[in-house]
Structures are given as structure tokens and as C-alpha cells.
Input
Amino acid sequence: MSFIDLKNVEAKEIAKGYFSKLIHTEKMTFSFIEVKAGETLPEHSHPHEQVSIIQEGKFQLTLDVKPIVFEEGQLVIIPSHTKHSGLAITDCKLLDVFYPVREDYQKLSNK
Output
């Protein structure tokens, strides 16, 4: 068992304007993201399954060219290899969970 206090985790910029506190387990990556209103996330895909949870704010996620607005308390499941992009409509706090571990994010954590 591990105990982590997020106050002691340094935020890394994972995309322009997207600052994340990254936590990795043996099989998953947790990304606690803060983003200011108006910041965009370019379209991308990855082999990881992803669950995105809106903790605060309003966020537009575009999945396979279909924009959907998510608000606090809502979540979306993004299958592997699905193209997606985003826009913070308001200041947001998001939690993204990835399976398996995001090795690219692990490298950021070790810097």
C-alpha cells in the first residue's frame, strides 16, 4: 500500500496549458489536471484506455469529431486508439485514468 499527498507532487505540463500531477501504479496512470478556460488539447489518440472525470468546471471533449460538453461529476470512457481533443470552457480540474501505464508520462514524472 502507498500513501501519496497530492500537495507534495509537482505538476508537469503534459500539453500546452495542461498541468498535471502524475501518479503511477504498476498498471495504471492517474493524471490530476488543472487547466485554465480557453486552453485547447490537440487531437490525438493512444493505445491506452482512458477514463476522464470532470471534478470542477465545464470541458468540451471531441470524440471522433463529435463534440460533447461534460460538467462536474460526469465522466467519459475513451476506448484505445480513439481520436479525441478538448477545450476547457471554464477553468477545470480533471482526473484522467489510463490503462496500462502511460510510459511517456512516467518519463515526465522522473524529470
Summary: The chain has one domain: 10-109. The longest helix spans residues 103-109. The chain has a mean pLDDT of 95. Helices lie at 103-109.
